[in-house]
Write a structure and sequence with these properties.
The protein is an alpha+beta fold. It has three domains: 8-71, 2-Layer Sandwich (Uridine Diphospho-n-acetylenolpyruvylglucosamine Reductase, domain 2), CATH 3.30.43.10; 76-228, Uridine Diphospho-n-acetylenolpyruvylglucosamine Reductase, domain 3 (2-Layer Sandwich); 236-339, Uridine Diphospho-n-acetylenolpyruvylglucosamine Reductase, domain 1 (Alpha-Beta Complex). 25% of the residues lie in helices and 27% in strands. The protein has helices at 34-42, 96-105, 158-161, 169-172, 200-206, 214-228, 249-258, 276-282, 311-329, and strands at residues 8-12, 24-31, 50-52, 58-59, 64-71, 76-81, 85-91, 130-131, 134-135, 140-147, 152-157, 177-187, 236-240, 246-248, 265-267, 271-273, 289-290, 293-295, 302-305, 338-339. Strands 6-7-12-10-11 form a five-stranded antiparallel beta sheet. A four-stranded mixed beta sheet has the order 1-2-5-3. Strands 13-19-18-17 form a four-stranded antiparallel beta sheet, covered by helices on one side. The longest helix is centred in the C-terminal third of the chain and has 19 residues, at 311-329. The protein is globular, with a radius of gyration of 21 Å. The two termini are 24 Å apart. The chain binds flavin-adenine dinucleotide. Residues 18, 50-58, 71, 92, 117-120, 122-124, 126-127, 129-131, 178-179, 229, 232, 237-239, 338 line the site of flavin-adenine dinucleotide.
Length: 340
């Protein structure tokens, strides 16, 4: 445990990223209050700071010479409650899964399918976290933050955020905005449960559950995730390394002629989403290990650190995979993970 709100130097970032990459931060501060956060971020002293929440969506390829801030602001507040809904404001440093558990304890629905997604609440809007048919945008009302360019406090509505698949205004303006809190609207009764997506339905059926509670849905999601994804505490990883590419219908039709078994999801009439994991698997990478780095044996989208890998080695593997997929399918797969 480091001393909060204190400027430290030459700190290893290994405990602060789920890949477990051992690079160091020349300057480091864990901040647990928004007053200090604003003061530090608006001062001229530390340009281009690197914010870290849970460190579950970053690949650190070198030592960081700018200030690294580990955000640890905590607080969950019910702003308003009607018969069917509650608006809840949550500070950015809360752990996402803790919020999910809090919501379930308070019989509030809407985020149970997002159980066990690593990382912090303040980072959730950046890539509009999603799993099992639900995305953050489905419950999102607004978020508050700091504009580092204009040096002022800002509020973003859902429309302002321009949420898309693993995308938002915060991704397209990387580093400009720091999110300090988010407000979500959860159901307090007549929960709109989404259990038909992915393996949830069969998991519940297997357990003999027909009308699941929020907790039972969450438990089903947790059990599916644990069986599919490696635990970063045991095997360093950052979840899905690449986004699923979205391609035009024409390009898809041509690919389907050559690969009739290619999995796909229609996005409207003109576009198709292809699972990047399938493309990577077809290139022969699934389960392959290259010294300290590799591709997970159960999920080709997940790159792993077997121990002492360097960030550059993981990045090199990622680039080799990108090239193989490009050469074989003429499809570009974009990293979902933020590379530094
Ligand atoms: C095993 C595993 C499974 C995963 N499964 C999923 C999944 O199912 N769905 C999904 O969507 N994602 C998934 N992820 C990815 C990850 O959990 C999410 O992207 C999460 O939102 C990252 O949060 P974090 O706090 O760890 O972000 P970090 O890695 O700390 O930061 C990510 C980026 O956001 C910036 N940042 C951090 N905090 C702030 C802030 N307050 N304001 C502005 N910028 C900030 C950082 O500088 C960095 O660029 C998974 C990851 C792992 C390791």
């Amino acid at each position: 445990m480091v001393k909060p709100n204190t400027l430290l130097h030459n700190i290893s970032l290994k405990p602060y990223n789920t890949f477990g990459i051992d690079v160091s931060a020349l300057h480091f501060m864990e901040i647990d209050n928004n007053t200090l956060l604003k003061e530090v971020l608006f001062s001229e002293q530390y340009p281009e700071p690197l914010l870290l929440g849970g460190g579950s969506n970053v690949l650190l390829t070198k030592d960081v010479s700018s200030l690294v801030i580990h955000l640890n602001t905590k607080g969950i507040e019910i702003l308003s409650k009607t018969q069917n809904h509650a608006q809840v404001k949550v500070l950015a440093g809360e752990v996402w899964h803790d919020l999910v558990c809090w919501a379930i304890e308070h019989d509030m629905g809407g985020i149970e399918n997002l159980s066990l997604i690593p990382g912090n609440v303040g980072t959730a809007p950046i890539q509009n976290i999603g799993a099992y048919g639900v995305e953050l945008k489905d419950v999102f009302i607004s978020c508050q933050g700091l504009d580092l360019q204009e040096k002022k406090e800002v509020t973003f509505t859902k429309e302002d955020c321009a949420f898309g698949y693993r995308d938002s205004i915060f991704k397209t303006n990387k580093g400009r905005y720091i999110i300090t809190s988010i407000t979500v609207e959860l159901t307090t009764q007549n929960h709109n449960k989404n259990i038909t997506y992915g393996a949830i339905e069969s998991q519940l059926k297997q357990e003999g559950i027909n009308t699941p509670s929020l907790k039972q849905i969450s438990d089903a999601v947790i059990s599916i995730r644990k069986s599919k994804l490696p635990d970063p505490k045991i095997l360093g990883n950052s979840g899905s390394f690449f986004k699923n590419p979205v391609i035009s219908k024409e390009k898809f039709n041509a690919l389907q002629k050559e690969y009739p078994e290619i999995p796909h999801y229609a996005l409207g009439e003109d576009q198709q989403k292809i699972p990047a994991g399938w493309l990577i698997e077809q290139c022969g990478y699934k389960g392959k290990r290259f010294a300290e780095v590799g591709v997970h044996k159960n999920q080709a989208l997940v790159l792993v650190n077997y121990g002492d890998a360097k960030g550059e080695q993981i990045w090199e593997l990622a680039q080799n995979i990108q090239k193989s997929v490009q050469d074989k399918f003429n499809v570009y797969i974009e990293p979902e993970v933020n590379i530094y």
